[in-house]
Design goal:
The structure holds two protein chains of two kinds. Chain A is mainly alpha-helical. Chain A has helices at 34-53, 72-96, 106-123, 125-128, 152-161, 187-200, 208-220, 222-225, 251-260, 275-287; strands spanning 17-22, 25-28, 32-33. In chain A, a hairpin with a 2-residue loop joins β1 (17-22) and β2. In chain A, α2 (72-96) crosses α10. Chain A is elongated. Chain B is of the alpha+beta class. Chain B has three domains: 25-226, no CATH class; 229-333, no CATH class; 362-475, Sandwich (Immunoglobulin-like), CATH 2.60.40.10. Chain B has helices at 25-43, 82-102, 105-110, 112-128, 131-139, 144-168, 175-184, 189-209, 211-217, 220-227, 239-242, 248-253, 266-269, 290-301, 314-321, 336-358, and strands at 11-12, 60-63, 68-71, 74-76, 234-237, 309-312, 362-368, 375-376, 382-392, 398-405, 411-414, 425-430, 434-444, 451-460, 467-475. In chain B, α4 packs antiparallel against α6 (144-168) and α6 crosses α8 (189-209). Classes of the chains: A mainly alpha, B alpha+beta. At the A-B interface, β3 and α1 of A face β1 and β8 of B. β3 (32-33) of chain A pairs parallel with β1 of chain B, so a sheet runs across the interface. Chain B: It comes from Sphingobium cyanobacteriorum. Chain B: InterPro entries: 4Fe4S_Fe-S-bd, 4Fe4S_Fe_S_CS, Cyt_c_oxidase_cbb3_FixG, Electron_Trans/Redox, FixG_C, Ig-like_fold. Chain B: Keywords: 4Fe-4S, Electron transport, Iron, Iron-sulfur, Membrane, Metal-binding, Transmembrane, Transmembrane helix, Transport.
């Protein structure tokens, strides 16, 4: 229309041409159907309705909030509340079921493991790692070696009361003397004990030093670690003969452990988490691959 | 600035189309195709197909909730969606094939828009009478009588639309159950919403939008105009035979000046999209061929040969114009492009059939735990953990054994077992038509490569047997 000339009519269709042409191809100015215009008006009406009903127009400090009061944050809160209401019965059931009875109720057990998986990511990964594989001084919870025991009830007790949690009477407590620092053993004697530990863990062949260390071990260590060095779970004394070391099994690290002793701390959780969450954490840790069966009454101290 | 004296409107009011009833070969063909397509649409969900106690007995079922697609003896899992993609590709190439062979036959006969519009127009003629009565009624003021007729017509349309929209949902659930639930108000909300939506679209598209859908909304006519060539069958007005058109009286008075077209306008009157085919091929022509029926009837009445309007290719039209005798329309079906499309179409079909016949109905997948990758056990061995999924695509439970191949000294156990029960393999029963998830621990001696490739092997322990294997990796510190 801008060229100001009367536009041509296409002979075949009787429709006006737009006026431009490329290599003999011209564009028809076909009128839109009237109903199309109506749908356009309908979308405008919809937009007006939307602006009135929903948050729409940004203002200087705020925005128009719409008459329905909808907000994405509110929608999220609603979803979270609905989810909480949905899982509340399971939480109550888990809190009401003693942990040794959980395996008999697979549905609850599965819910507990999954709930524990989520809670672990929040409360436990800082020390034990996101895969619960631990680190030096922080136990790997995937393996089959347990300081205090790997059955459901024992794991739960460890989480409830923690390990060496200061000022908590019920906490798990094991105090190994700092044999070198406190001059209970001389430096040479400590070296002999280390040689013995290296031998019973099958890392070194027996030697004169390890034989001397064996005698020292019998005098100083067997109270807690046992005559064979396999540890005592009731005292939290680790098994020194297996392939798993909390701080490391090389000579220097063992020497540092004997010299200074190790006093790792895990906080108690019963003042921070509810019963159900602790129970779920225990179920999750138990499910990682090293979980042990609940000991029967008469086989109390047999298993290692 | 000069403006045209009478600027054309940017928007165009829809012109009323009141197609006249017609009878003839193509009209009967359209009836037959309408009957078949509607019967397929309404009947399919009610066919039963016995699949045993573990699978639904509906012959064609799209089970979205359980992510299964049943089609007679074939069951498709989500991971086999490429069969559906293949069907869609075949449908697409099928349209190319049909277009290449018989022009816009899909538009004219089988497209749901055409079928339902045809049905609605039949209802319209039943209530309002034929073309002339419809035109009169449209122009008439809104009296009580007109209102009554409109109400009757729209009610019938709405009933058909409801049956159409309502039938759709039966493809997605067990039809008899859903029917009961639907009427007792206990069906899923989505069933009612779908029915309402499709009822509304059927009512609107079939009753009011009609040819507007073909001309303005549907991309297919535009694509087809690009696909038609001089060998494609199109409905052709043989102008060289018809022109100069003129009334029968004039033509009889001056036979030398006039052609066969007696300008009776019947071809325009019967056209469901309201075009004049005598203006030549155009996007509004869906090649339903009703104008051929109308013209043939008129030609018979005035004693002239049939086929003044007929299916004809551009090539044949040119030949005929130069004096060649008319070729039967069917002889245009086979030409190189048609054969090429047919070859591609059949090849895809054959490949899919072969794949369907050869596909395995049980398989295994394994994903290694990445955190931690490995765990040292107290006896010094290294443990890796895997999430192993065994997929049983048969409609019956199957006992299976999972073992490892290529990992010396390995012992396997699951999270439901103690390590003391570990062995060279684990067994499980996979429920019918489902995936069993097994968390499998593997312990192997610490001595070995830090990354060792091996394979999980799956064996079905039933009469049918079969199995699968899955490459995996064992990692050590």
């Amino acid at each position: 229309m801008a060229d100001g000339q009367d536009r041509k009519i296409d002979a075949a269709t009787g429709t006006e041409l737009k006026g431009h042409e490329w290599d003999g191809i011209a564009e028809l100015d076909t009128p839109l159907p009237r109903w199309w215009l109506w749908t356009f008006y309908a979308t405008i009406l919809f937009a007006v309705g939307y602006v009135v009903a929903y948050p729409a127009i940004p203002m200087l400090n705020d925005y128009t909030r719409g008459m329905l009061g909808w907000s994405s944050r509110g929608a999220l809160d609603k979803e979270l509340a609905a989810r909480a209401a949905q899982i509340a019965p399971i939480h109550r059931a888990i809190a009401a079921t003693p942990i040794i009875d959980l395996p008999a109720r697979p549905h609850l057990m599965q819910a507990a493991v999954e709930g524990g998986r989520a809670a672990f990511k929040v409360h436990c990964v800082q020390c034990h790692g996101s895969g619960a594989a631990g680190a030096k001084g922080y136990p790997n919870l995937n393996d089959d070696d347990w300081l205090w025991g790997g059955d459901l009830a024992t794991i739960e007790k460890t989480i409830i009361d923690g390990v060496r949690n200061p000022g908590h009477d019920a906490t798990r407590l094991s105090i190994m003397p700092a044999f070198g620092r406190d001059q209970l053993l001389t430096a040479a004697q400590v070296d002999d004990v280390v040689a013995h530990v290296r031998t019973i863990s099958r890392q070194d062949k027996p030697s004169a030093a390890s034989q001397r260390g064996g005698k020292l071990f019998a005098d100083n260590c067997t109270v807690c670690h046992g005559a064979d060095g396999k540890g005592t779970r009731a005292l939290g004394a680790p098994n020194l003969t297996d392939g798993i070391w909390l701080y490391g099994g090389d000579t220097d690290t063992i020497r540092a452990s004997v010299w200074n002793s190790r006093q790792g701390v895990m906080p108690r959780w019963d003042d921070k988490l509810d019963t159900a969450t602790i129970r779920m954490l225990a179920a999750y840790v138990h499910s990682l691959g090293g979980g042990e069966a609940t000991p029967t009454a008469d086989a109390g101290n047999a298993a290692e | 600035m000069l403006m045209p004296a009478d600027p054309p409107s940017l928007y165009e009011k829809r012109k009323g189309v009141y197609p006249k009833a017609v009878d003839g070969f193509y009209r009967r063909l359209k009836w037959a195709i309408m009957a078949v397509t509607l019967a397929i649409y309404w009947g399919t969900p009610w066919f039963r197909w016995d699949r045993g106690p573990y699978a639904p007995d509906q012959a064609v079922l799209v089970d979205l909730a359980h992510r299964r697609f049943y089609m007679f003896a074939i069951e498709i899992w989500p991971h086999e969606f490429y069969y559906v993609a293949g069907l869609l590709i075949m449908a697409g190439i099928g349209l190319f094939l049909v277009t290449s062979a018989v022009g816009r036959a899909w538009c004219g006969y089988a497209c749901p828009q055409t079928v339902w519009t045809d049905l609605f127009q039949h209802v319209e003629r039943f209530v309002d009478g034929d073309r002339n009565a419809q035109v009169r009624l449209a122009k008439a003021p809104w009296t009580l009588a007109k209102l009554g007729r409109r109400a009757a017509k729209w009610s019938l349309w709405l009933a058909i639309a409801f049956l159409t929209g309502g039938a759709w949902i039966f493809y997605f659930a067990d039809a008899p159950t859903l029917q009961r639930d639907f009427w007792s108000g206990t069906a899923a909300p989505v069933a009612y919403a779908t029915t309402a939506l499709l009822t509304a679209t059927t009512f609107l598209l079939g009753g009011f939008m009609r040819e507007q859908v073909c001309i303005y909304m549907c991309p297919w006519p535009r694509i087809q105009t690009a696909m038609l060539d001089e060998k494609s069958l199109v409905v052709t007005y043989k102008a060289w035979r018809g022109e100069q058109r003129g009334s029968l009286k004039k033509a009889q008075a001056h036979p030398a000046e006039f052609g066969d077209c007696i300008d009776c306008n019947q071809c325009v009157a019967v056209c469901p999209t309201g075009i004049d085919i005598r203006e030549g091929p155009q996007i509004g022509c869906i090649t339903c061929a009703l104008c051929i029926d109308a013209c043939d009837a008129v030609m018979a009445q005035v004693g002239r040969p049939r086929g003044l309007i007929d299916y004809c290719t551009q090539e044949d039209a040119d030949a005929e114009q130069k004096g060649a005798p008319p070729r039967p329309a069917l002889s245009a079906l086979l030409h190189p492009r048609t054969i090429a499309y047919l070859t591609v179409w059949s090849a895809i079909g054959a490949a899919m059939l072969f794949a369907l016949g050869a596909r395995t109905r049980i398989d295994i997948a394994a994903q290694q735990d990445r955190n931690p990758i490995f765990v040292r056990l107290s006896d010094g061995a290294i443990r890796n953990a895997y999430m192993v999924k065994v997929r049983n695509m048969e409609a019956r439970p199957r006992p299976v054994t999972v073992a490892v191949d290529g990992l010396a000294g390995a012992s396997l156990w699951t999270d439901a077992m103690a390590r003391e029960q570990a062995g060279p393999s684990v067994t499980a029963t996979v429920p019918a038509d489902s995936v069993a998830k097994l968390r499998i621990f593997i312990a192997a001696p610490a001595a070995g490569p830090s990354r060792q490739d091996f394979a999980f092997t799956l064996t079905a322990n039933d009469r049918e047997g079969g199995g699968d294997h899955e490459p995996a990796r064992f990692e050590r510190p």
